Amino acid sequence: MSSRSTIWVRDALVITFSFYVVFSLALAPWNNLELDSHNSGICSDGCAPSIVFPDDDYYHYTNSIEFEWSPVSVSYRHIVVDDDNGEIIFQGNITANESQTPRLPPGNYTSRIYYAGMGGSSLGDNIVDMPLLLTEEQSTVTASKLSVVWPTVNVTYGLMININEQVSADKYDTVYLDSFTLVHQVDGLVDTKYTYSDFISGETYSWTVYAIDSEGFISEFSDVRDVNIDTTKFLAYELFNDWEVPFILLGVLMVIALQAGVFLAREERDD
C-alpha cells in the first residue's frame, strides 16, 4: 500500500469515527438517566409510587409492555404509657412490624401500636387520626426492654391504562390530545411490575399507578405518562432508546480504530 493510500484510509477512518461519536451522543436518550422522583413531600393518604419504566412519551415497538414502579413503604408509631402515672415514657416511628424499647425501670406499662400510613402520608401528624393496630399490657419486675410484634399492614397496587383520543387529523401534532378513555384497570397487584399485552399499533396511551393499603387508604396517583405504540418508527430510535447500546458500540469501535491505527502506522513506516 502506498503512503498516499495509507494516509487516505487513516483519515477516512478518523472522520467516520468522529461522526459516529457525535451521532451516538446526540441520539442517546439522556432523560432515561433521571434519578429524582417527582413524588416527594407530604401527601394526604400517601404519596404515589415512583415510576421506574417506561419514561414519559416512551416509544415502544411491540404490543406488550412491562410497567414497573418502586414499592411504597409503610410506617407505625409505638407508644408506651406508664400505667402508674399515665405518662408517655417511650414513642418511636417504626418501619418494621416489631419494636423494642430501651431498658425501662420495673413497672406496669401499656404498649400501643398505631398505623402512621404509607410513605409521605400526613396521617402520622396526628395521633387521633392514626388507626390503632395493637394494645398490649406488659409488666416487669426488673429493668427490662419491652418487645412488641404486630400484624403487618400490606400494600397492593393498582394500574390504569387509557387510550388518548385524537382531535386532530395530524397524529404527530404536539397538541392533538383531548381526552382519555379507560381501556384497562387492575387492582390488588402485589408485585411492582405488570405486563399488558393488548395495545394497538399506532396509538398513544397514558398510564398511572397508585397504592392501596390493607387499612383502606389509597395513595395519590402517579403523574400520567404517555407511551406510544408504533411499529413504523425508525429502527435507529429503537436501537438508541437504550442509552447503553451506543456506548457499547462506541467501545468496540474504539478498539477497532486503535488496532487499525497501529497497523496503518506500521505500513506507513515500512513505505
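Second entry:
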Amino acid sequence: MVHFKAMAESEAGARRGILMVVSSPSGAGKTTLAHLLAQTERLEFSVSYTTRAPRAGERDGVDYKFVTEDEFSRMIDRGEFAEWAVVHGNRYGTAVHTVNRALEDGKDYLFDIDWQGGKQIRAQWPDESVLVFILPPSMAELERRLRRRATDSPEAIERRLVMAKRELEHFAEYDYLVVNDNLETALKELSSIYVGARCTRARRGHYGLALLHEAGFGDDGSLLIQGRSPARFGSVPGPTPVSITITTVKPLLFRFSRISFASSSE
C-alpha cells in the first residue's frame, strides 16, 4: 500500500483570477496596449473612476466612469475603492467589487492604472497580481507622443513630462518591463507575459490534481498500490503496506520525507 500526500495548497481549490496591472508614464502607450491586450486575450477590462473631464472620443462607462469630486470623496468614505490615487491633479480609483468579482469568479481582469494603484493592488493581493510597466524607447519619443496627442495644453504637457521622470523611478517595483518602441512587438510581449502568468504551476496546479484524482488518488491524496514483501520482512510473501509521505518546501519542490515498511507477517 502506497500513500502519497502532496501538501501543495496553492495548487488546490478553484481557479483564481489574475489581476493584470499595466502602468507607465503618461504618453508611453499603456492605455492603447491595455485595450489591445483585453481584446486579444479576451480579458475583462477594469474601468476606473475618475474626477477629470472626458477627453474627445472618451465614453462614460467604457473608457472611464466620470464622477464629481464630491461623489469620489463619498466613495472613499464608504470604502468602495480597492485603490485610488491623485494623478496629474485628478483622482482615479478602482472599485473594490471589481477585484472581488475577478477573484471569486476566476476571471482575469486588466487594470490600466498608475504606479500608486499598482503598489496598492500588489500590497493587498500579492499572489494574484501581475505587474507590467510600459517604457517609452526614449524621453525624446515620449515628449513627441505627448505633443502629437494634442489633448492637453502646452503647460499640461510640461507638467506631464516632469511627472514622467518621477514615475519612471518606480519601474523596479514591477514584475515585467515592456519597451513600447513598436506597438505590434510590444503587444506580443505583453500577451506573452499574460499567457506565461496563466500557465504557472500555482495557477494550473488544479489541473494536475484533477489528473491525480483521475489516476486513482482519493480526496485525501492517498493511492493504493499492491506489492510484495521483501524477503527480509518475513518468510510469508504477501502485500506490504508502504507509507510514503511527500511534502513540499518553498518553492513547491516535492521530496520524499518518510518511507516506512511494515511486514504483514509480524
